[in-house]
Amino acid sequence: MAQPAGPRARARFVRETPDVRRQALIDATARCLAEKGIGGTSVRAICARAGVSSGLLTHYFPGVDALILATYVDVGARVSAALDAAIASAGNDPRDRLRACLLANLRPPVLDPGLLATWIAFWSLVTSDPAIAAVHADVYRGTRHQLETLLGEAAPQLSQAQKRIAAISLTALVDGLWLELCLDRSSFTAEEAQAMAESAMMQWLGANDEQVDKSGAL
Question: Does the pLDDT at position 209 exceed 70?
């Protein structure tokens, strides 16, 4: 005679929470964008990757555009979380915290060719999709503000205008190194990229009167 199913047998029928299902769709979209680009990221492709019906996607998102936007926000948040974790683990020394923030961009999980492929898909929409452009501006603004804060703590002698220019220049350098490392690591190593970023950081932290004049009499 069959025995009643116990708690262990019933556990397999527990439904996933809405947050889990929504995140699964976002994760699937990020993978589709990385592998297929914008052109290949459709409702069918996303749902096939997530293993769900198309009806579930439209239950959580108005359409693919809204899901891609949510994915951009999610990926940006993950990168920010990785940088925040690196800063937190660096201790209380302001220079160590600034260094950790810069170098975390040139180490996993941020240094990831798969992440580059996803970012490229997002970047392709910046000039044509106002919502994506707004997220892009917000991500960049947050990155710059974080660096300005860290620079101010590490080099109190810098003016607000100097901190702004320093944050922009360091961001541009790190972004360029990150991009090239993700595309082709034959030109230089991650360790060399990290050394270049740290050297640029130290130049700003040691800014003297001559450097102030060169940056536009800030």
Answer: no
